[in-house]
Amino acid sequence: FSFGGGRLIAEVKEVKDDGNRIVQFECEGNFFTALEDVGQMPLPPYITAKLEDKERYQTVYSKELGSAAAPTAGLHFTPELMKKLEEKGVRFGYVTLHVGLGTFRPVSVEKVEEHIMHSEHYEMPKETADLILETKAKGGRVIAVGTTSCRTLESVVKKEGCIKESEGWTDIFIYPGYQFQVLDGLITNFHLPESTLIMLVCALAGYQHTMHAYEVAVKEKYRFFSFGDAMLIQ
Question: Residues 27, 29, 32, CA angle at the centre, nearest 5°?
Answer without folding.
Answer: 75
